[in-house]
Amino acid sequence: MGNVLTAKNISVRYGASQVLFDAEIEIGRGEFVSLLGRNGMGKTTFVKALMGMKSIESGSVFFCGQQVAGKPDYVIARLGMGIVPEGRGIFPNLSVNENLVATAMQRKGSMSTIWTVDSVYELFPGLRKRIQNLGSDLSGGEQQMLAIGRALMTNPQLLILDEATEGLAPLIRHEIWSCLARLKNEGLSLLVIDKNIKPMLGLANRHYILEKGRVVWKGNSSELSDSPEIMSKYLSL
Ligand SMILES: Nc1ncnc2c1ncn2[C@@H]1O[C@H](COP(=O)(O)OP(=O)(O)OP(=O)(O)O)[C@@H](O)[C@H]1O
């Protein structure tokens, strides 16, 4: 079926300092891929470069069969790249319902579900109870669910999550992982940045490790599980 995303030779700098060096990633349709690495290794920057939120110095990004490198973020989003950003990015002064409606794109994504406010509330029943509450009134876990719901409302071809379980209680984290497992089972392609390696080993098909802006390792979950030296060298595990 081909890849939903193929990025090659991605180099990015902030002013004088280069933070990505020929980074690459491939995501097959329906694949769950993780992007791993310690703090400050370039994961968020890589995702921003793929999304058109950070300009790239060189490299190519094929998304859904189109070259999107250099295109603005709203064009790439419209093609179906959805993001749950670090820090969640919800509107604090809009209600839960308004937050969801704000990103809605009624179209067929890569899943059998066409996401509407109702299907998001069915995925996260807790959010339905908070329908009229402002974004700022929600707990951290509820905000995270709302951020995922917002991204699903775009009916994406690829969903990217940057540290979606950070700072959440174990039970809520578990709920987020179950949600991602369900989305994967329904055929959504996912790219996930997260520090919790154990659930990632269970869920992800393949992994990429970034170290100082370079992809230093890639492989599947059993290869990573069988490489304790890689995990301790690059992930401090
Ligand atoms: N806006 C910016 N201006 C200058 N340097 C930046 C900027 N954003 C990030 N950097 C630098 O780029 C490097 C990569 O940062 P990035 O946030 O992409 O890493 P990360 O792997 O996502 O880390 P974290 O898990 O801490 O978010 C770091 O050295 C960081 O200090």
UniProtKB/TrEMBL annotation:
InterPro entries: AAA+_ATPase (IPR003593), ABC_transporter-like_ATP-bd (IPR003439), ABC_transporter-like_CS (IPR017871), BCAA_Transport_ATP-bd_LivF (IPR052156), P-loop_NTPase (IPR027417). Residues 5-237 form the ABC transporter domain. The keyword Transport applies. SUPFAM superfamilies: P-loop containing nucleoside triphosphate hydrolases. Keywords: Amino-acid transport, ATP-binding, Cell membrane, Membrane, Nucleotide-binding, Transport. One of its GO terms (molecular function) is ATP binding. Pfam families: ABC_tran. Belongs to the ABC transporter superfamily. This is ABC transporter ATP-binding protein. It comes from Polaromonas aquatica.
